[in-house]
C-alpha cells in the first residue's frame, strides 16, 4: 500500500492506562488493514490488533524521555497509548495511520478487499439471508390495507429509500408522488412495523415542507390513508422526535412539522431527542469520564451526569416506549419523523418494534432490525467511514445498541443473543469489513456494487451463534411486549461497551466463553447420543455418569479414555470455576455454566462410551 | 408514666396453627370477623372502624375499607377486601399483609384537610384537631396512608395518639418482646408458630439442614471457632463471666494465650468501656484479626499498647508484626453515615419522581452513601491484603470499638473466609461481630425513638455484602432477598437478637423484668427471647427457600484444577502455600496515617527515615497484589476482593426501591434470571436424585418424598422445562409495593405539596410546631 512507509517499528512501548504496570515492549507492524502490536516482553505471545477503519483519531503527544507518544482512539472505544523510540518513526506511523484510517474513496474500504474464501453462491446466499420482504410477509403484508409497491423502483420517488416500500393500499400513485414532493428529500410516509394483532402501524417519514402555512392535499390524503388502514382506531399519532424548538426553527427554512388543523384526526406530539451534534458531544464527555484513572464515586457519578449520555439514552427509550404503548394500548397507528427521518426516527422505530415483537429479540429478528436501519435511514457519514465532515459523525447506532443493552439489563431472559452479539455488530458497523453498513442508502449500495463485491455480515455472525447466544433466554413465547422502566435510575452505565478494552475492569477470562463452549459441548454430545453404542451396558454407563457428575476420580484407567477429549472436559470444568466475574449478569454465567455443565452430564455418557469401545 | 398493663383485653388472643400445619396457615378465621391476629402477650390498645387505606397515588378507586387497630406490637389494618393490583404477597407469619410493627415506624403524621393542619405526633402529645388522615412513615422507606372520612372523629384521634404513644415507648422493657416472653414463661404452651421461643439455638433455615447458628454466648462456641480457624495460640477467657470486667463485652471472648487473666484484668482499666483487645478470627497463615477500643490512659498508652502487641505477635506462628488500623481516622463517622442514610431515604422516596429527575445521578452522589460503601469495601480489602499477603495480624482500633469495627471486622471475614458466605456462617458472623461484640442495636436502630445515636451501620454492612454478592453471585449461599429480610427483621421487636445494646443489657433488663413479673428464672441468665435465626417464626419452610441462592456453588461441588479433582476444603496447607519463607520486610512498611507497631524494644523513630519511599513501595506492592489478584481466576471458596472503581459500586435497588410502585419493572428485573437459574438448579438436583436411585438400585416409587425436597423456591416441572416466568414476577419480588406508598393526596389537599416537597425526613421540629 502506498501509504505505508514504515511497515515495522521495533522497541515500541504500549502503556496500560489503568495500572502502573511496567509498559509492555514490543514491535509494531503496519499492514494494509491492521495495525498489529506484538508484545515481546511477556512470555506468552500477546498481540494487539487494531483495524485501520476502527481508528477514530491519532494524536502525537509531546516528546518524552521515553520516546514519542502516539495516542490512538478507536471507534469501538479502544484507546491505545504507544511510545515509539524514534521521533521519525513515530511521525511516519502517524502520517500513515492518518491516511489509512480515513480512506477517501469507498473502493478503498476493507470490505472490497476482504476475502474469506467463500464461493460466489454462498456469498449470494449470505446476502439473501436477511430479507425485509420475508419480514413483511411475517407481518401479513400485503393485506387488505397495505401493499408492497415498486413505485420507487427507479428511485424516482425517493433516492434514499429502497426500491420496494410499503404504503397503504388506499394511497394511489398520485398521492404517493404528491406526498413525496411535500416531504424533505422525498421521504414519504412508509410502513416500518405492523402490529398484526390490532392493525396499528408504525410508519416513518421526513419532516413536511410546511414552513409557516404550506399545505399539501396529497400528503393529507396519505396520512388519512394510513389512519384508515387501522380501522380500529379513529385517530393516529404523528410524532416529531425533535425538541419543539428545533422543529420550529426548521419552519423558517420552509420545513417544520404538521399542523394539526390541516390533517384529520391526528394527534401531534413532540418527543425531545437531541440532534446529532448534541449526542456527539455527550459521547465525548462520557468517554472522558471512562478514561479517568480509578475514578472516585463522586468523579464517576458527577461525570456521568454531566455527560448527559444516559439522559439521551433515556429520551430514545422514552420515545420507543411511547410508540409501543400507542400501538399496543391505544390501538393507534403512529407516524414518526425527525428532520430527514434517518437518525432519531430510525432508532425509535426499531426500538418500538423490538419492544412489541419478540421475534426481533431473536438472532434473525435482530438482524432484520439492524438491516432495516441501514435500508431506510442509516447514513454512512454518521460512522465516519470515509474522510469527511467530522460534524456529520454521530453515535446514532451506538445509542440504538445501548438501548437494546439497557433492555437486556431489565429483562435478562428475553433476548436470544447476549451482550457480545451487540458488541460484534457495533464493531462491524465501523469495521467496514462487510458490505452491510457501507453506503448511505440502497441506491448507493447498488452503485458501489456492494452486493456483488462484498460479503454480508450476517452469515458470518450466525456461524458464531453458539458464543453469541444468551443462556438465560426463556424462549420466543415467554415474553410478548416489554414494558421497561424508564425512570432515570433504571439506566446503567455500560461498562462492557465503553470500558471494554480496559482489562483492569473486567475478568481476564470471559465467563461467557466458558458458558457458551459448554453449550456447544452439550449440542455435540446430543449429536453423539444419536450414535450411542448399543453394547454399552447400563451399569457401566451409570458408573461413568457418577464420575462425571460427582467429579470424583475416574474409576477407569485413563488409557481407555481418549486423553485429548478428557483433557478438554477437564479444561472446561476448570475454566468454569476460574474466571473472576465482573458484573452480576456476567458472573452469573459462571455458576450458570456450572449448572449447565452438570446438566449436560446426562448426555455425556455416550460421548465417553464412544471411546470406551474403541 | 405509662404502663403496659392493658385496660382489660377486649380481644382474646389465640394460638396460631401448630407446627405440623405450618405450610397451611392460610385458613384463618380473621377475615370474616375483622379481628386482628394476636401473638401471645399482644393486646389491642385501640381501634377505629370504617377506615380507608389508600392504595394508589392517582385514584381512590382501589382504596380498601376496614378497621385500623393499634396493638402493643404493631398497627394492623384489617379488611375484607382483597388487595387490588397485587399478584403476589410474601407472607410473614408474624404480620398481616397490612401490618406495620411499631418498631418499624419512623414518623407519624396526622392531617386535617379542612383545617389545613398537620402535625407530627410525638409520644404523650395532644392533638388539637380531629385527623382526617394518618400517614405512617416507616424505617424501611414505606409510607402508609389511612383516611378517616367515614370514621368516628374521636376514635380516629384516639388511635392516632395510641400509635404515637406505643411506637415511642419510654423504656426498653415496654418493647413488645418483654411482654411476649413474659407471657410465654407464664404459659409455656403458647408458642408462636409452634417454635419454642428462644430455644437457645440459632435455628435453621432449611428443613433439610439441621445446622444451628452458633450464638457465641458460651465458652464452647468460641472454642470451636478457635479450632475451626486453627488459632492455636489463642484461648477462650472467662474473666468476664457475670460481666465482672466489662458490661459491653461478652462473657467469653478470645485472647492471646500468652496473656494471663490477671494481666487482662489489669489492662482492661485503661481501655474505654474496659474493652480490651479481643480476637475475631484467624487467617490460616496464622495472622489474627483483633478488635480493640482506644486506650484512655495517656500515660500508660505506650506501655500497654506495646504489651498487647507483643502478645499478639507471640500468638502469630511467624511472630509477625502487628498492623494497627485506626478506623476513626480512615472511615466515615457514624454521624456521616446517618446523614447519608437520611439523604438516601429522601432520594429513594421522593426525588426520583420529581421534575428534577435529570439530577438523579448527582443527587445520588450527594447522599455519599455509595461513597461510604466504597470506602468500607476499600479499607477492608486493604486489611485483607495485610493479612493474606503480608502475613501480619491486624488490629482494628476504634474509640469504643463497637461500631465501625463491627462492620470492618465482618467484611474482612466475609472476604477471607468462605464459611461466612454460607447462611449459617453469615449468621454466626453477625452473632460474633455484632450481637456479642456489643453493637448497640437499641440505640443505633433507635427502637425507643429517642436516641440521637441512630445510625444504620448494620444496613451499611448488609449493603456492602450485597455489593460483594452482586460481584460474585456464585460465592454466597444466600440471596439478596435473605439480606433484605434480615434487615427487616431488625425492626420487629420480637427478637432478642437486635433489641439490645449488648448481651449484658439483655440479662440486666430481663432479670429486672422477670422479678417485676414474678417469673422464676432458675439457672438462666435473664430471659430468653426468640432468636431471629429461628426463621420458622417468620416464614414457612417453602418461603424460606427464597433465601437460597441458586447460583451458589456449594462446598460439595467438585472443582477440577490442573487435571486433578479437588474438593473445596478449608485446609491449612491449602492456604499457607503462600506462606513459604519469612514474611517480606515489613517492619519498614508504613501506610499513611496508620502505624505498624514494631516488636519489643525497637523504636518507632528508627523507622522514620525513608518514610515516603517506603509508603510508596507499600502502596505499590498492595496495588500489585490487587492487580495480580484480579488477573487470576477467582476461587469462589477462597478470598474474594471487591471491585471498587466508581463504575462497580451500585445502588441496592431491591432494598431501597421495593416499596416504590413507579420503580418496578413488571415481568423483569434480576428475579427473572434468578427464576431461570432456579429451574435449572432444580433440574440438576432432579438428575442427581435420579442417579442416586439408579445407583442404589431402588425402584422409582418410594422416593417421592425426596423429590418434594427441592432446594429451590421455583421448581421445574420436569427436565428441560420451558414455561415462562410466573406472571407475578417483578423487580420488587418478593415484596409488593402496592399500597405502600401514597405520595400525593387524591383529594388535592395541601398534603400533595407537603409530601412531595417538604423535607419531611429531615425537619420534624418545624412541623411539630405547626399544630
What does this structure look like?
- The complex is a heterodimer of chains A (614) and B (771).
- With 614 residues, chain A is of the alpha+beta class.
- In chain A, 44% of the residues lie in helices and 13% in strands.
- In chain A, the strands form three sheets. Chain A has a seven-stranded antiparallel β-sheet, covered by helices on one side.
- The longest helix of chain A has 29 residues.
- Chain A is globular.
- Chain B is an alpha+beta fold.
- Helix content of chain B is 34%, strand content 12%.
- In chain B, the strands form four sheets. Chain B has an eight-stranded antiparallel β-sheet with strand order 4-3-2-1-8-7-5-6.
- In chain B, helix 10 crosses helix 11 and helix 10 crosses helix 14.
- The two termini of chain B are 24 Å apart.
- At the A-B interface, helix 8, helix 21, helix 22 and helix 23 of A face helix 9, helix 10, strand 15, helix 19 and helix 21 of B.
Sum this structure up briefly.
Chain A is 44% helix and 13% strand.
Number of helices of chain A: 23
Q: What is Rg of chain B?
A: 27 Å
CA-CA gap between termini of chain B: 24 Å
- Largest interface, chains and sizes: A-B, 79 and 78 residues
Protein name (chain A): Myotubularin related protein 8
Keywords (chain A): Hydrolase, Lipid metabolism
Pfam families (chain A): Myotub-related, PH-GRAM_MTMR6-like
GO molecular function, one term (chain A): phosphatidylinositol-3-phosphate phosphatase activity
Q: What secondary-structure arrangement, pairings included, does this model have?
A:
The complex is a heterodimer of chains A (614) and B (771).
Chain A: E1 8-15, E2 24-30, E3 34-39, E4 46-51, E5 55-60, E6 68-74, E7 79-84, H1 87-101, H2 120-128, H3 132-138, E8 146-149, E9 165-168, H4 173-181, E10 190-195, E11 200-204, H5 217-228, E12 236-240, H6 244-251, E13 266-270, H7 276-291, H8 297-307, H9 309-329, E14 333-337, H10 344-356, H11 363-376, H12 380-383, H13 396-410, H14 419-431, H15 442-447, H16 450-453, H17 457-463, H18 465-468, H19 495-498, H20 511-530, H21 538-550, H22 563-577, H23 584-612
Parallel strand pairs in A: 11-14, 12-13, 12-14
Antiparallel strand pairs in A: 1-2, 1-7, 2-3, 3-4, 5-6, 6-7, 8-9, 10-11
Helix pairs in contact in A: 4-5, 7-8, 9-10, 9-13, 10-11, 10-13, 13-14, 20-23, 21-23
Chain B: H1 30-33, E1 44-53, E2 64-71, E3 74-79, E4 100-101, E5 105-112, E6 117-120, E7 133-138, E8 143-147, H2 153-167, H3 176-186, H4 219-229, E9 234-237, E10 253-256, H5 261-268, E11 278-282, E12 288-293, H6 298-314, E13 322-326, H7 327-330, H8 334-349, H9 360-367, H10 369-388, E14 393-398, H11 404-416, H12 423-435, H13 441-444, H14 457-471, H15 480-489, H16 503-516, H17 541-544, E15 558-561, E16 564-567, H18 572-575, E17 595-597, H19 611-631, H20 653-657, H21 670-695, H22 704-708, H23 751-757, H24 764-768
Parallel strand pairs in B: 12-14, 13-14
Antiparallel strand pairs in B: 1-2, 1-8, 2-3, 3-4, 5-6, 5-7, 7-8, 9-10, 11-12, 13-17, 15-16
InterPro entries (chain A): Myotubularin, Myotubularin-like_Pase_dom, PH-GRAM_MTMR6-9, PH-like_dom_sf, Prot-tyrosine_phosphatase-like, Tyr_Pase_AS, Tyr_Pase_cat
Organism (chain A): Anser brachyrhynchus
Family (chain A): Belongs to the protein-tyrosine phosphatase family. Non-receptor class myotubularin subfamily.
Amino acid at each position: 500500500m502506498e501509504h505505508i512507509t514504515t511497515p515495522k517499528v521495533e522497541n515500541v512501548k504500549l502503556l496500560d492506562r489503568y495500572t502502573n504496570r511496567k509498559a509492555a515492549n514490543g514491535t509494531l507492524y503496519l499492514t494494509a488493514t491492521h495495525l498489529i502490536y506484538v508484545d515481546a516482553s511477556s512470555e506468552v505471545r500477546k498481540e494487539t490488533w487494531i483495524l485501520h477503519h476502527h481508528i477514530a483519531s491519532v494524536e502525537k503527544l509531546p516528546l518524552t524521555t521515553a520516546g514519542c507518544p502516539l495516542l490512538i482512539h478507536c471507534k469501538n472505544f479502544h484507546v491505545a497509548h504507544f511510545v515509539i523510540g524514534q521521533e521519525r518513526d513515530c511521525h511516519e506511523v502517524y502520517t500513515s495511520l492518518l491516511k489509512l484510517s480515513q480512506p477517501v474513496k469507498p473502493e478503498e474500504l476493507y470490505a472490497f478487499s476482504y476475502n474469506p474464501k467463500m464461493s460466489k453462491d454462498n456469498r449470494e446466499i449470505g446476502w439473501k439471508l436477511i430479507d425485509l420482504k420475508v419480514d413483511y410477509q411475517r407481518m401479513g403484508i400485503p393485506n387488505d390495507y397495505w401493499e408492497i409497491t415498486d413505485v420507487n423502483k427507479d428511485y424516482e420517488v425517493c433516492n434514499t429509500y429502497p426500491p420496494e416500500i410499503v404504503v397503504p393500499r388506499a394511497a394511489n400513485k398520485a398521492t404517493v408522488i404528491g406526498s413525496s414532493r411535500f416531504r424533505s428529500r422525498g421521504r414519504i410516509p412508509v410502513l416500518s412495523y405492523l402490529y398484526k394483532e390490532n392493525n396499528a402501524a408504525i410508519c416513518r417519514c421526513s419532516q413536511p415542507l410546511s414552513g409557516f402555512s404550506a399545505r399539501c392535499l396529497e400528503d393529507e390524503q396519505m396520512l388519512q390513508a394510513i389512519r384508515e388502514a387501522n380501522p380500529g382506531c379513529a385517530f393516529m399519532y404523528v410524532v416529531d422526535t425533535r425538541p419543539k424548538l428545533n422543529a420550529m426553527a426548521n419552519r423558517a427554512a420552509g420545513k417544520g412539522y404538521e399542523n394539526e388543523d390541516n390533517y384529520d384526526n391526528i394527534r401531534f406530539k413532540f418527543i425531545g431527542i437531541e440532534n446529532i451534534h448534541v449526542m456527539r458531544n455527550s459521547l465525548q464527555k462520557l468517554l472522558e469520564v471512562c478514561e479517568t484513572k480509578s475514578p472516585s464515586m463522586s468523579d464517576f457519578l458527577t461525570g456521568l451526569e454531566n455527560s448527559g449520555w444516559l439522559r439521551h439514552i433515556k429520551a430514545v427509550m422514552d420515545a420507543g416506549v411511547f410508540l409501543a404503548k400507542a400501538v399496543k394500548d391505544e390501538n393507534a397507528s403512529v407516524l414518526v419523523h425527525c428532520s430527514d427521518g434517518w437518525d432519531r426516527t430510525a432508532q425509535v422505530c426499531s426500538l418500538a418494534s423490538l419492544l412489541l415483537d419478540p421475534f426481533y429479540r431473536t438472532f434473525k429478528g435482530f438482524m432484520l432490525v439492524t438491516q432495516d436501519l441501514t435500508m431506510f435511514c442509516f447514513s454512512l457519514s454518521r460512522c465516519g467511514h470515509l474522510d469527511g465532515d467530522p460534524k456529520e459523525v454521530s453515535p446514532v447506532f451506538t445509542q440504538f445498541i445501548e438501548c437494546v443493552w439497557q433492555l437486556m439489563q431489565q429483562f435478562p431472559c428475553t433476548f436470544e443473543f447476549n451482550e457480545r452479539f451487540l458488541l460484534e455488530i457495533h464493531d462491524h458497523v465501523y469495521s467496514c469489513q462487510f458490505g452491510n453498513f457501507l453506503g448511505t442508502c440502497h441506491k448507493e449500495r447498488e452503485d458501489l456494487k456492494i452486493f456483488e463485491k462484498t460479503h454480508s455480515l450476517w452469515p458470518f455472525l450466525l456461524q458464531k451463534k453458539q458464543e453469541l447466544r444468551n443462556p438465560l433466554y426463556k424462549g420466543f413465547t415467554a415474553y410478548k411486549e416489554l414494558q421497561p422502566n424508564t425512570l432515570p435510575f433504571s439506566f446503567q452505565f455500560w461498562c462492557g461497551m465503553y470500558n471494554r478494552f480496559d482489562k483492569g475492569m473486567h475478568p481476564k477470562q470471559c465467563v461467557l466463553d466458558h458458558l457458551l463452549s459448554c453449550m456447544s459441548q452439550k449440542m455435540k454430545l446430543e449429536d453423539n447420543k444419536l450414535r450411542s453404542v448399543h453394547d454399552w451396558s447400563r451399569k457401566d454407563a451409570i458408573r461413568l455418569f457418577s464420575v462425571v457428575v460427582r467429579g470424583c476420580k475416574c474409576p477407569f484407567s485413563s488409557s481407555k479414555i481418549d486423553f485429548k477429549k478428557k483433557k478438554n472436559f477437564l479444561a472446561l470444568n476448570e475454566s468454569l470455576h476460574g474466571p473472576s466475574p465482573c458484573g452480576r449478569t456476567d458472573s452469573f454465567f459462571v455458576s450458570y455454566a456450572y449448572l449447565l455443565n452438570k446438566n449436560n452430564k446426562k448426555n455425556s455418557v455416550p460421548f465417553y462410551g464412544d471411546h470406551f469401545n474403541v | 408514666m405509662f404502663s403496659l398493663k392493658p385496660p382489660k383485653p377486649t380481644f382474646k388472643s389465640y394460638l396460631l396453627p401448630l407446627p405440623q400445619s405450618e405450610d397451611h396457615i392460610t385458613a384463618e378465621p380473621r377475615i370474616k370477623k375483622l379481628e386482628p391476629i394476636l401473638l401471645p402477650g399482644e393486646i389491642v390498645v385501640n381501634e377505629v372502624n370504617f377506615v380507608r387505606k389508600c392504595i394508589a397515588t392517582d385514584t381512590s378507586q382501589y382504596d380498601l375499607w376496614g378497621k385500623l387497630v393499634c396493638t402493643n406490637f404493631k398497627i394492623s389494618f384489617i379488611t375484607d377486601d382483597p388487595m387490588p393490583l397485587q399478584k403476589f404477597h410474601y407472607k410473614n407469619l408474624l404480620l398481616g399483609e397490612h401490618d406495620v410493627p411499631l418498631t418499624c415506624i419512623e414518623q407519624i403524621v396526622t392531617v386535617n384537610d379542612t383545617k389545613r393542619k398537620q402535625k407530627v405526633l410525638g409520644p404523650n402529645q395532644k392533638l388539637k384537631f380531629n385527623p382526617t388522615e394518618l400517614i405512617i412513615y416507616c424505617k424501611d422507606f414505606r409510607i402508609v396512608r389511612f383516611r378517616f372520612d367515614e370514621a368516628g372523629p374521636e376514635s380516629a384521634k384516639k388511635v392516632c395518639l395510641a400509635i404515637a404513644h406505643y411506637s415511642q415507648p419510654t423504656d426498653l422493657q415496654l418493647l413488645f418482646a418483654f411482654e411476649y416472653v413474659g407471657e410465654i414463661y407464664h404459659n409455656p404452651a403458647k408458642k408462636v408458630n409452634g417454635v419454642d421461643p428462644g430455644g437457645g439455638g440459632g435455628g435453621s433455615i432449611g428443613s433439610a439442614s439441621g445446622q444451628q447458628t452458633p450464638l457465641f454466648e458460651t465458652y464452647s462456641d468460641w472454642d470451636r471457632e478457635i479450632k475451626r480457624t486453627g488459632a492455636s495460640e489463642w484461648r477462650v477467657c472467662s474473666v468476664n463471666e457475670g460481666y465482672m470486667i466489662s458490661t459491653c463485652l461478652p462473657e467469653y471472648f478470645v485472647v492471646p494465650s500468652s496473656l494471663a487473666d490477671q494481666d487482662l484484668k489489669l489492662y482492661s482499666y485503661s481501655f474505654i468501656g474496659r474493652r480490651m483487645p479481643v480476637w475475631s478470627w484467624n487467617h490460616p497463615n496464622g495472622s489474627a484479626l483483633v478488635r480493640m477500643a482506644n486506650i484512655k490512659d495517656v500515660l500508660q498508652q505506650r506501655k500497654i499498647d506495646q504489651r498487647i502487641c507483643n502478645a499478639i505477635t507471640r500468638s502469630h506462628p511467624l511472630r509477625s508484626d502487628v498492623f494497627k488500623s485506626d478506623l476513626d481516622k480512615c472511615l466515615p463517622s457514624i454521624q456521616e453515615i446517618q446523614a447519608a442514610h437520611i439523604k438516601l431515604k429522601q432520594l429513594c422516596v421522593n426525588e426520583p419522581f420529581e421534575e428534577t429527575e435529570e439530577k438523579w445521578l448527582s443527587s445520588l452522589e450527594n447522599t455519599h452513601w455509595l461513597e461510604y460503601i466504597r470506602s468500607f469495601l476499600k479499607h477492608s480489602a486493604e486489611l485483607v491484603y495485610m493479612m493474606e499477603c503480608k502475613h501480619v495480624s491486624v488490629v482494628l482500633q476504634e474509640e469504643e470499638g463497637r461500631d465501625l469495627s463491627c462492620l470492618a471486622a465482618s467484611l474482612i471475614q466475609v472476604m477471607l473466609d468462605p464459611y461466612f458466605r454460607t447462611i449459617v456462617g453469615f449468621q454466626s458472623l453477625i452473632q460474633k461481630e455484632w450481637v456479642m461484640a456489643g453493637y448497640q442495636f437499641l440505640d443505633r436502630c433507635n427502637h425507643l425513638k429517642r436516641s440521637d445515636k441512630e445510625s444504620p451501620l448494620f444496613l451499611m454492612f448488609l449493603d456492602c455484602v450485597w455489593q460483594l454478592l452482586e460481584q460474585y453471585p456464585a460465592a454466597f449461599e444466600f440471596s439478596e432477598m435473605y439480606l433484605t429480610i434480615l434487615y427487616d427483621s431488625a425492626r420487629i421487636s420480637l427478637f432478642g437478637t437486635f433489641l439490645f445494646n449488648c448481651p449484658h443489657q439483655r440479662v440486666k433488663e430481663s432479670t429486672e423484668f422477670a422479678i417485676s413479673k414474678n417469673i422464676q428464672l432458675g439457672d438462666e441468665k435473664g430471659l430468653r427471647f426468640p432468636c431471629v435465626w429461628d426463621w420458622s417464626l417468620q416464614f414457612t419452610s417453602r418461603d424460606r427457600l427464597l433465601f437460597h441462592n441458586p447460583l451458589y456453588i456449594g462446598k460439595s461441588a467438585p472443582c477440577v484444577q490442573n487435571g486433578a479433582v479437588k474438593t473445596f476444603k478449608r485446609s491449612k496447607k491449602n492456604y499457607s502455600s503462600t506462606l513459604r519463607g519469612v514474611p517480606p520486610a515489613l517492619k519498614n512498611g508504613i501506610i499513611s496515617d496508620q502505624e505498624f507497631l514494631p516488636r519489643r524494644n525497637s523504636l518507632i523513630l528508627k523507622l522514620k527515615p525513608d518514610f515516603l519511599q517506603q509508603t510508596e513501595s507499600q502502596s505499590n506492592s498492595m496495588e500489585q497484589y490487587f492487580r495480580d489478584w484480579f488477573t487470576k481466576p477467582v476461587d469462589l471458596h477462597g478470598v474474594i476482593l471487591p471491585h471498587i472503581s466508581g463504575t462497580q459500586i451500585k445502588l441496592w435497588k431491591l432494598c431501597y426501591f421495593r416499596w416504590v410502585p413507579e420503580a418496578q419493572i413488571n415481568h423483569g428485573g434480576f428475579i427473572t434470571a434468578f427464576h431461570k437459574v432456579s429451574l435449572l438448579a432444580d433440574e440438576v438436583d432432579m438428575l442427581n436424585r435420579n442417579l442416586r436411585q439408579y445407583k442404589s438400585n431402588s425402584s422409582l416409587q418410594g422416593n417421592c418424598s425426596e423429590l418434594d425436597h427441592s432446594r429451590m423456591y421455583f421448581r421445574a416441572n420436569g427436565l428441560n422445562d420451558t414455561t415462562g416466568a410466573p406472571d407475578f414476577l417483578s423487580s420488587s419480588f418478593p415484596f409488593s409495593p402496592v399500597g405502600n406508598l401514597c405520595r400525593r393526596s387524591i383529594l388535592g389537599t395541601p398534603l400533595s405539596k407537603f409530601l412531595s416537597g417538604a423535607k419531611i425526613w429531615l425537619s420534624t421540629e418545624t412541623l411539630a410546631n405547626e399544630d
